[in-house]
Write a structure and sequence with these properties.
Helix content: 55-70%
Distance between the termini: 36 Å
Structural class: mainly alpha
Number of domains: 1
Strand content: 5-15%
Strand order of the largest sheet: 1-2
């Protein structure tokens, strides 16, 4: 299993382009990432996009909670 941050659409808000251009300039679209996998000698079995609910419920909300805890502690 491979997880990779990927562009999901061609037309993106300017702020998003600027942020990721500074923080992860080599980010690619899903199709480009699949080509990299294949050029590396692997055969992708499939791919999917994690639903937006999962981003917030399972990643961002717990991360924000932990950041707040660490701010209080340190």
């Amino acid at each position: 299993m491979v997880s990779e941050l990927s562009w999901l659409r061609e037309n993106r808000p300017r702020e998003m382009e600027e942020f990721w251009g500074s923080n992860y300039p080599s980010m690619k679209g899903i199709g480009d990432n699949i080509k990299i996998i294949e050029k590396s000698g692997y055969l992708p079995a499939g791919h999917f996009i994690i639903p937006e609910k999962g981003w917030w419920q399972d990643y961002y909300n717990p991360l924000m909670k932990r950041i707040n805890e660490l701010r209080k502690k340190y």
